[in-house]
Amino acid sequence: MKSLIETIVEPLVDHPEHIVVTEQEEENKVVYHLQVHENDVGKVIGKNGRIAKSIRTVVYAAGMKSNKKIYLDIM
Predict the structure, then answer these.
(1) Pick the residue with more confidence: 66 or 46?
(2) What pLDDT is recorded for position 7?
(3) 4-42 as b/e: b if 16+ CB within 10 A
(4) Alpha carbon separation from 12 to 22, 51, 69, 75 (Å, rounded)
(5) Which of 3, 10, 24, 40 pairs with 16 at a CA distance of 20 to 30 A?
(6) What is the DSSP code (8-state) at residue 50?
């Protein structure tokens, strides 16, 4: 899942070397934390959060096979 998030975000940012995805697994959920360069945060979030919502939709759909709820936090 981490590679999927990196693959989606990489073309959106100017500094792809600063993409960091960390995974925090708990009992019934998995939280992915996405960190990008401070100048790229707006590009990942998009106008009114549209790009962030689209990224989350793809990640949630990819994680439907697991029995755990998946969350994506953009920092």
Answers:
(1) 46
(2) 95
(3) ebeebbeebbeeeeebebeeeeeeeebebebbbbeebee
(4) 19, 10, 26, 15
(5) 24
(6) H
Rg (CA), the chain: 12
Is residue 59 within 8 A of residue 72, CB to CB? The reply is: yes
Mean pLDDT of the chain: 93
Which CATH number does the domain 2-74 belong to among 3.30.70.1290, 2.40.50.140, 3.30.160.40, 3.30.300.20? 3.30.300.20
Question: Is pLDDT at 64 greater than 90 in this prediction?
Answer: no
What is the model's pTM? 0.89
Angle at 4 between CA 50 and CA 75, to 5 degrees: 55
CB 39 within 8 A of CB 15: yes
